[in-house]
TrEMBL record, chains A, B:
EC number: 3.5.1.4
One MF annotation (Gene Ontology) recorded for this entry: amidase activity
Keyword presence, Transport: no
Residues forming the catalytic site: 129 (charge relay system), 204 (charge relay system), 228 (acyl-ester intermediate)
PROSITE patterns: AMIDASES
Protein name as annotated: amidase
Organism: Mycena venus
Family assignment from sequence similarity: Belongs to the amidase family.
SUPFAM superfamilies referenced in this protein's UniProt entry, alphabetically: Amidase signature (AS) enzymes (SSF75304)
Binding site for substrate: 178, 204, 225-228
Domain Amidase: 74-539
Keyword Hydrolase part of the UniProt annotation: yes
């Protein structure tokens, strides 16, 4: 078979396990771009399905534990909504209804029999990025060559989630090679943005972004090596957390650039609320993941750090906003989102100062050098068996000349790679000092507590135009935890184009020129809250403070 | 100047800061091999000097804090003994008497003025392996090319130790390139073993081993990438701890293979007691080193883990002894040391089972592949400026054909290195499973609590014959913490050669053949206690249990 035939056959069987009645006949036409609220109108979803799928993770868990809702009911509701989301945005890869419902049934029986939940995530449906292996199910990662090779073992995170009582129920779409900030591959095709289907959902965890935005999953697990959790979170208006290296177990997942150990891809959660993010971390840490993955740091959830003991107990924090990175100035909606955040934090009694960028471009360059050191050989190896092409453009028109985000090079020697590592080490040391040196400017007696920065210099752009990791990649290089938080949405009346004469670079000018408010209408506006390495608990707590400040501020204005 | 002239001039000025009265005139002749007790006879050391230098770290700190002994007195006593050690074994590199005494004087004044100690290590002299940079002092690392280039900044560990009140007072010798388990370089020459100067002190932290064995320093800091703390600790009969990656800050030290981030060199303490080891960790962690070195894990000293809550509160532990690694069977004294340890632990009421080796050779091979990936280019770069030769043999006769421990190769590509990393990742995962699988054999309901293994297949051998990292390197690859503990000494009457017919390899046979009890007379016998990744506190606690069991057992037998 040709690679096209293999891909077509895989795609043709994608919905085989889905009951026919879950497939809506009242779907919007392809011309309907804004589909974010469609699930509420869909004939497939009952009032109870809507109530369940629009509940917070905390209420889902409490209603599951009290048996108000069965795991079968909750799984069914989310599955139905996920299938609607799939039909709207093409966000799923593997769908295994019987298996997930059987698991839910077993959980219900356990609870009935013992009166006890299986664990902290009892009955909670969880979506998983396609990389996360489940025994017996394909982990193609969008490579045609990997179709029909079901995983022989569960990934460690899957085992942990199951041991906590979760119900993994779908796998989600991603770009071929993962190293792309949009979501497009030769097996499952392209995922679109439910806020505006002419825009990209971002990548690489783009299936998660679109699915969770449509409330087709209460909690998803993505991965981030250069922005792959935060970019789709930002573009799809959901919460998403890129934790530090080696806190969430990656063992047993498939991946690109395996053995590239310099800038580690990390797993992290996406959800519609911070409560989902926090629940995920507390639950996973409670299972002592270092006993199952030797890379994982031996450290439990710290309530002390969550209570911000290193940040004045959270009473008066100092946030620093990086308005732009001296490379590419963000579009007006991003600026407005940052201003809204600043005002909300000031209104809540916190300090807000400006973050001074430090060698941002140099830090990103290091990351690109590392990833390209052996990338081409890696991609070739994965595509060679079927001869499928390596996707170099993410434009809608595959014949058009379009910018490619994905790095490629002829490769370097190990010794050259070591020299890049030295630069990385020095830059990490310098950035730490740069942060420490803010102590005199904060008025709190501490250095800046958290940085707030854009996630991209724009909201979700049209397909094929997401071509930069400039606001995300630096944090993977420095290994700072960063949590994406939605702020508001693009409003052409507010987000007008402003005249600008001076530019940092050709990319900066080009980015300025492509902006027009109409194209980006309705796109979510987000930002990220950034902490020090290993400070997951504190970043979650500080994000809760920012999120609550924004909620109050928006309610007043 | 030629490299020989540069080296000779450096060496000629090594003792410039030392008062003439500290240089003994009653030194033993070069033919005297056993010099371990010589300091007690030396006319240089007063009774008080002996009392001070033979005190434990705990009593030193308590007598310093109570002002029974001044920091100047304690520093002077250790300095005098260190200079004796230098004359006996050539264990030092940089000596800076005025500077250290001025520091001690300032500490004394602070205590007098405020009634408070500066920190947990107030007044404690500390020796530092030559890699550990001190502003204004050379960090040659034994490279002629680096002579006369004083460090521009302190290393982070130096700053932390000073902030704790310690008095860094000497730097210690090491092999050129560091990647050698003996101690020999073109600048400072060879360090010998004070238990028997015809034997090697081991390496790479060999200067620390010899100095601390002679009680010329109460606490030293070495580094370990393949055994470099544990080997000299074992050969010189002192305690030495190789912790997990990224717990003790390495930032600002000089190093070999900089940018080789796959198997990290780590800093760790050497001391004459476990109390010194524990004091070091508690003190360093209390200074939150992650605020100063971005690589460091954000985790304080855990009393919970030290109290062995994950090990049944330490009541009944199960140790597993790896008698040999199925590569090279250790010499009879090592076997006797392990048997003594087993009997001591059984007598103390613990379980002892056999550890089954698992792919030990494969794990070591991975490490060698990684280090050689760019090593030759690295060594060339460091030696080229003066043209000094790269030392390839550590034999006494530099013209003799002798085995070289140091790996070398033409280098590999980054992509090939990534493939090695994949194997490493898989082996780490398999070894974790191998360890977990012992749960059914221990009788405690837990997997094995700690492994006990040889540190080398022999006690300190004659110079030039230390040519294997087979019992240490695997732990750097797996990132398991391992603490070297002295057991006893070679006794030719007990450690007789036994007939053996079958061998695992040519190296195994060769190792068998070189043994004869007389050559190794008086050499210390040691072993290492090995825990899980990140389990520093528990390994210290379990080592205390082993050490105490041995003490009691030896007192009874």
């Amino acid at each position: 078979m040709t690679w096209q035939q293999i891909a077509a056959e895989k795609k043709a069987h994608q919905l085989d396990s889905v009951p026919k009645e879950w497939l809506g006949s009242d779907l919007p036409s392809a011309e309907t771009l804004i589909v974010i609220d469609f699930p509420r109108e869909s004939s497939v979803l009952s009032a109870l399905d809507l109530e369940i799928t629009e509940s917070s993770v905390a209420s889902l868990l409490s209603n599951l534990a009290s048996s108000k809702w069965s795991a079968v009911q909750v799984t069914t509701s989310f599955y139905k909504r996920a299938i609607v989301a799939q039909q709207l945005t093409n966000c799923l890869t593997e769908i295994f209804v019987e298996r997930a419902l059987a698991r839910a049934q077993a959980l219900d029986e356990h609870l009935k029999r013992t009166g006890q939940v299986v664990g902290a995530l009892h009955g909670l449906p969880i979506s998983l990025k396609d990389q996360i292996s489940i025994k017996g199910i394909d982990s193609t990662m969008g490579y045609v060559s990997w179709v029909g090779q079901p995983a022989e073992k569960n990934s460690v995170i899957f085992d942990i989630l199951e041991s906590l009582g979760a119900v993994p129920f779908v796998k989600t779409n991603l770009p071929q090679t993962l190293l792309s900030p949009e979501t497009f591959n030769n097996v499952f095709g392209r995922t679109t943005n439910p806020y505006n289907r002419s825009l990209t959902c971002g990548g690489s965890s783009g299936g998660e972004g679109a699915l969770i935005a449509l409330k087709g999953s209460p909690l998803g697990v993505g991965s981030d090596i250069g922005g792959s959790i935060r970019i789709p979170s930002a573009f799809c208006g959901v919460y998403g957390f890129r934790p530090s290296y080696n806190r969430i177990p990656y063992a047993g997942c498939v991946n690109s650039l395996e053995g590239q150990d310099s800038i580690l891809s990390v797993l992290g959660p996406l959800s519609n609320s911070l409560d989902g993010i926090k629940t995920f971390f507390k639950a996973v840490f409670s299972k002592e993941p270092w006993q199952k993955d030797p890379m994982i740091i031996r450290k439990r959830w710290s309530d002390e750090e969550y209570n911000l003991i290193h940040h004045g107990n959270g009473k008066k924090l100092c946030f620093a906003i990086m308005w732009h990175n001296e490379e590419i100035v963000p579009h007006p909606p991003i600026r407005r989102g940052l201003e809204m955040t600043k005002n909300a934090l000031l209104a809540a009694g916190h300090e807000v100062i400006d973050w001074v960028p430090y060698k941002q471009a140099e830090i990103s360059t290091i990351a690109v050098s590392i990833m390209t050191a052996g990338a081409t050989e890696d991609f070739m190896k994965a595509t060679a068996p079927t001869g499928e092409p390596i996707i170099t453009s993410i434009a809608l028109d595959q014949n058009a000349e379009a910018p490619s985000f994905r790095p490629s090079s002829a490769g370097t020697s190990a010794f050259e790679l070591w020299q890049v590592h030295k630069k990385k080490r020095d830059l990490r040391q310098e950035y730490l000092q740069h942060w420490e040196d803010t102590v005199g400017k904060t008025g709190t007696g501490r250095p800046v507590d958290a940085i707030i920065s854009p996630i991209a210099p724009f909201t979700a752009p049209p397909h094929g135009l997401m071509n930069t990791g400039t606001y995300t990649l630096w944090l993977n290089t420095l290994d700072y935890p960063a949590l994406a938080i939605p702020v508001t949405k693009v409003d052409p009346a507010l987000d007008v184009k402003q005249p600008r004469e001076e530019f940092y670079s050709a990319e900066d000018r080009q980015n300025y020129e492509i902006y027009n408010p109409a194209t980006y209408e309705n796109a979510p506006i987000s930002m990220q809250v950034i902490g020090r390495g290993g400070e997951e608990e504190a970043v979650i707590a500080m994000s809760e403070i920012v999120d609550e400040a924004l909620r109050r501020y928006k309610a007043q204005v």
